[in-house]
Amino acid sequence: MRTQPKSCEDNFVEFKTGIFKSYNALPESYDEYFDRKGKPHEELKGIVEYFTKFSLEDFLSFHDKSENFFFSRSISFNVYSDEKGVEKIIPVDLLPRVIAATEWKVVEEGLRQRVQALNLFLTDVYGRQQILKDLPILKEVVLGSKGFCAQLVGITPPHGIYVHVAGVDVIRDSANCFKVLEDNLRVPSGVSYVLESRNMMKNIFPEIFAKIKIKNVNVYPFQLRQALHSIAPDNPMMVLLTPGPYNSAYFEHVFLARRMDCPLVQNSDLVVEGNKVYLKTMKGLKQVHIIYRRTNDDYIDPTVFNPNSLLGVPGLVKAYLAGNVVLANALGNGVADDKAIYPFLPDIIRYYLAEEPILAQVVTYSALNPKDLQFILDNLTSLVIKPVDESGGKGITFGAKAAKKQLEEVKSQLKANPRNYIAQPLEELSACPTITGRDVCPRRVDLRPFVVTGKATWVLPGGLTRTAVDRDSYIVNSSQGGGTKDTWIVEL
Amino acid sequence: MDSGVITVPRIGAQIYWMSRYLERGESLVRMLSATYLLSLDYKFHLSIEKHPLLYFLVEDRIFQSLDNKGTIDDESIQTFLVFHEDNPNSLHVSFRRMREDARLVREVLGENMWQTINDFYQWLNSAESREAYKNDRCYFYKNILDYCLLLKGIFYDSMLRDEYFHIMELGIMVERANQVTNIIDKLIRGWSKYSDQLLQDTEQKLNFYNLLLECGASRDCYFKKVHDFEPESLVKFFLHNELSPYSIQHCLKSIANNLSVVFATENATLSLVHQLAESLSEANVFSISAADIVDRTHQICLKLNELNAILNLKLEVK
Description:
The structure holds two protein chains of two kinds.
Chain A: H1 45-51, H2 56-73, E1 76-78, E2 87-89, E3 92-100, H3 101-125, H4 130-134, H5 137-143, E4 165-172, E5 178-184, H6 191-204, H7 206-211, E6 213-214, H8 220-230, E7 238-241, H9 250-260, E8 264-265, E9 270-273, E10 276-281, E11 284-287, E12 290-293, H10 297-300, H11 316-321, E13 326-328, H12 345-353, E14 360-361, E15 365-366, H13 370-378, E16 383-387, E17 397-398, H14 404-416, E18 421-425, E19 431-436, E20 439-448, E21 450-453, E22 457-459, E23 464-467, E24 483-491
Parallel strand pairs in A: 3-24, 5-14, 7-8, 7-12, 12-13
Antiparallel strand pairs in A: 1-2, 4-5, 4-21, 6-24, 9-10, 10-11, 15-18, 16-17, 16-18, 19-20, 20-23, 21-22, 23-24
Chain B: H1 9-39, H2 52-57, H3 60-68, H4 74-82, H5 91-104, H6 111-124, H7 127-135, H8 137-158, H9 163-195, H10 202-215, H11 219-225, H12 231-239, H13 248-262, H14 268-279, H15 282-286, H16 293-314
Helix pairs in contact in B: 1-5, 1-8, 1-9, 1-10, 5-6, 6-8, 7-8, 9-12, 9-13, 9-16, 13-14, 14-16
């Protein structure tokens, strides 16, 4: 049901109309749609006006359409621990997250810089290790990292690129400042949901795409394919290696394999002979030059890493070390996205690039540093304590909400194993209007942009916006019940 | 000719079984639909020898276990064949397996194909489908059959003509040959058990024949060429008929063609298929005497079983 927009002196639609009528922003957070006076941000005016033409009943019906869209294509993720169903449809909210292109440009530059520094760091850590001599505090952090692979020291992948695909988690704080929260440099996932969410939104809201200039995301698979081909021999044979259909991101593996036009293979389809990797085909063995691998380091080769792995290809690491196959992402990246390294990233950027970081990151205290450890212990109730070797939001303690007993446990763990923890002040993540049942409520969000590096670096416009499960939550991971939104980079 | 497409054996095997389950499900739904309509006119005897569904589709030991529970009736037989998870050939199990195989290879199926398989699967497991089974059985069966035909249409119309296409067609034809052979083998061996109960008059014979011909999608085809209701005629029709895509000879020719593309260098299996196809030429089939037909049909079944075993080994999902 359409409502007539009310005009104001500034010629914008007064937001308290339509579905935003009873919307109340979170007082502590930056609201992605509205300023403190309730006026839509500049990049959102046309979009808010468009959405106020629909009622909540309309949105319920759109929601059914979106669910059908995802069900029919089985756009899913697998939750290992959920007994009810292996496949779950990714929940996507119909109100997009919108970022002005001018703001995005800064984020984009910051991400390029960060990934460049990370590649240089990895080259050094697996090479001369000069940074460990110049910044001794890093030595224990790096060499003690579970992600550090001593077997790889002395080996440099083609063009010194370790991180072909990075998923960098970014938040917007209460002062409207983008900050990096976390780097994901091993097997970052989520990009397929970005592309499919966009397709779904185009299906349901085609008119807005005609009115507003939104940056395209569909070229991602092409860009990734080009990037990987650019660092391999001519006419390379590329495959996408998946752990299999029960992996949480299997849909994404299928999606990318199809769009990148490369075979989707499991470990049993590959064999290593003479330190070269071959794909078993119905016409015989075919040499593989690039493996876009979605299998973690631990499981990728049972002869080198986890001997119990049933997902690996025996001999793959030898082929990699011999330079006969490119692995994307390279092995050993875990040392660089180790949370214990994160506090040192600004110094790492300065060290390799002689530049100030363009993108800030969340203030972080490393329990390995005695001063920081004392600060953490003295200020537990106002900090968020994170174990460095967990992901998906697991193991995080919010000091302000934790019970006394839990805080005591955390204290002992910090003292017993300081290398294993970092702490950060609770950042007020920005919040975005989100349709929840029969209302529109604010939900905290973060953003995962994707950065692709071959001979050049390309950043996907936008990325995956993830939303927290409820009003009070700060955890946005899908495995913890969070949802997602389409992310629009809008040119004004 | 090298299509330039990389074909991975594991994927080939999955596609082969996906298409077999599709054909199996379609064959079953035709039988169920035709029997259901016939049952509105005739009361079938609830014994494995005399009930068409039990006779053609249910193994003796399974029937015994159903019978021992004392729950057997027309409705429970249909439910068993449509829904039962313990029945490895039930409609639900067949299509569930089809969908699962498709899910594992969806990157090589066209998007239309995958989406339609998924839409079908969602519908089959929906409340709407259960409601249709309960209150509008004809629509329930028709909708399933429509989906099967739609999937085949998408397959033939849009899939790349690479090795995967040929493997899929191979699966369809192998399964079809199996299903048809099963029907005619049982028909010719058990004919006398039917004739005294059901087929006292021409109308009954006609209806029964219609049932069997519906299973083979061949009713129109049969009556263009054959005008009698003798079991030998029906069997010979299904062994050889140049118009019908359900004749076993047609299936074998297609199997040979697809095998020559997929396993280009493998000759022994191809020879077996060619021999079988030749034995089902018009001259050979129509020269079979009434005395020999039971035996000959059974021999063909055994040869097809042998072919099945060879192909299952070649296209084993590892």
